[in-house]
Design a protein that fits this description.
With 293 residues, the chain is an alpha/beta fold. The chain has one domain. 43% of the residues lie in helices and 8% in strands. The protein is built from ten helices and eight strands. Strand 4 and strand 5 form a beta hairpin. The longest helix is centred in the first third of the chain and has 23 residues. The radius of gyration is 18 Å and the shape is globular.
């Protein structure tokens, strides 16, 4: 995939890394358990505010120093600049989309970290993976997660991280529209369908990520959006990434039995289908995953 490395820096992207190798802790597992067994079954959406992450501040070592993401000299090629470009484009896309509908919209923050940090939803460690916290409208990302996706889940290619980022931003969109709050209320009112509601929320985020991806092209983008050249191979990489974090795939790879009753994010097939639904229709209104509930 070709992309414009001169894209403007996103003002809401903050680097809170200490310089440690957070990815190593993820890849190696925690407490002797595989990352597949303790992290990825809950990845994408764990920090939406409904399941606050346990406070890990007490085990944080070292001081968190926030570096300016606006200064290109603080960004190492290629992953940091690439993440910045994706974040900027996804952010601009949703600002423009909400403006088109005349709906008020507050932009989220995006934080890179590599050691345990405190968030409004509790403590965040590298083992948690990417997550969105609705309590402070912030996406948290430990860059080592992308290595885990590639080495342990087979989610290869440069567009797999783009899918992850777009999915987490979609959780903010759901929060802004009141969808996440409605799901929490319904889950409390009817615990019997809590997992089903969670699955539909996650599949909708996949669909919204697909809507974003559909707007990328080799021609100059509209407004402030970046110039991209997205190929069919890139979309296949995104689909593969969506499949790699399906509940059934993760359960199988972690050595457990396939138990649909415990799913919270949907099967690999469902996640692929809903990403493609958004990508092919380019229409947010085609992401109604709650029909027939």
């Amino acid at each position: 995939m070709k992309w414009d490395k001169t894209a403007a820096r996103n003002k809401n992207l903050k680097d809170r890394r200490t310089g440690g190798r957070g990815g190593g802790a993820v890849a190696g597992g925690v407490g002797g358990f595989s990352i597949l067994g303790i992290l990825l079954y809950l990845v994408f959406g764990i920090g939406d505010g409904s399941n606050p992450i346990p406070d890990a501040g007490a085990i944080s070592g070292g001081q968190v120093v926030e570096r300016s993401i606006d200064d290109p000299t603080t960004l190492d090629e290629p992953v940091e600049v690439y993440v910045n470009a994706i974040v900027s484009d996804v952010a601009d896309f949703w600002v423009d989309t909400f403006a088109d509908y005349g709906v008020a919209y507050n932009e989220p923050s995006f934080v890179l970290y590599d050691t345990p940090i405190n968030t409004a939803c509790g403590g965040a460690t590298a083992a948690i993976g990417p997550h969105y916290c609705a309590l402070n409208s912030t996406v948290y990302l430990e860059l080592g997660f992308f290595d885990v996706m590639e080495r342990q889940l087979g989610a290869t290619g440069d567009f797999a991280p783009a899918y992850v980022i777009a999915h987490e931003y979609a959780h903010h969109v759901q929060s802004e529209l009141g969808i996440s709050g409605w799901v929490r209320e319904e889950s409390a009112r009817n615990p019997r369908i809590r997992n089903e509601l969670s699955i539909r929320l996650e599949l909708q985020a996949d669909c919204l990520a697909g809507v974003w991806a559909s707007g990328l092209s080799s021609s100059a983008s509209q407004g402030t959006r970046t110039i991209w050249n997205v190929t069919e191979e890139d979309i296949r990489e995104a689909i593969n990434a969506a499949a790699s974090v399906g509940d059934d795939r993760i359960q199988a790879q972690s050595g457990g039995r396939i138990n649909k009753e415990s799913w919270t994010h949907g099967s690999s097939e469902q996640r692929m289908q809903w990403f493609l639904q958004g990508y092919r229709t380019a229409d947010t209104e085609q992401c109604e995953t709650f029909d027939g509930l």
